[in-house]
């Protein structure tokens, strides 16, 4: 690992921990993504994490807060854009019809996207608005 990669890994660890401490499982390889999509039944929240400010101040807090809803996804996973590039690219392959964006969040049912929140619906929104967007989807699909 070169010094830049090492630095970015160290910098991003707290950003990873913020989701894993909330119960999310990191998928770091394309194989892990394929296994998850292929074998997981029910509802799943996928957070495409990133180092940007809107991930830190909006996406991650909204994802965590949304889990306090009466209905919530059965499975929680995350991929890290810019860090685990191959895993992120593979997950985005499953987001058919949606442009790649990070951060972003997808609610899946049996591996299919049923609700998607791209960066443009995160940036410049309040945590409460994003949380409401997620919980509305949970109430419909979970």
Automatic annotation (TrEMBL):
The organism's place on the tree of life at top rank: Bacteria
Coiled coil start-end: none
InterPro entries according to UniProt: BrxB/BrxA
Pfam families: Disulph_isomer
PANTHER family: BACILLIREDOXIN BRXA, UPF0403 PROTEIN YQIW-RELATED
Family per record: Belongs to the bacilliredoxin family.
Stated name of the protein: BrxA/BrxB family bacilliredoxin
Organism lineage string: Bacteria, Bacillati, Bacillota, Bacilli, Bacillales
């Amino acid at each position: 690992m070169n010094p830049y990669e090492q630095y970015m890994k160290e910098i991003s660890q707290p950003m990873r921990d913020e989701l894993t401490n909330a119960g999310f499982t990191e998928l770091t390889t394309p194989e892990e993504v394929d296994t998850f999509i292929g074998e997981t039944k029910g509802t799943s929240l996928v957070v495409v994490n990133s180092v940007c400010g809107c991930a830190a101040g909006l996406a991650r807090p909204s994802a965590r807060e949304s889990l306090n809803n009466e209905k919530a996804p059965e499975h929680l996973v995350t991929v890290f854009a810019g860090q685990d590039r191959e895993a992120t690219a593979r997950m985005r392959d499953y987001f058919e019809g949606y442009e790649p964006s990070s951060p972003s969040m997808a609610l899946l049912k049996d591996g299919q996207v049923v609700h998607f929140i791209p960066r443009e619906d995160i940036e410049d929104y309040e945590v409460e608005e994003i949380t409401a967007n997620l919980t509305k989807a949970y109430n419909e699909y979970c």
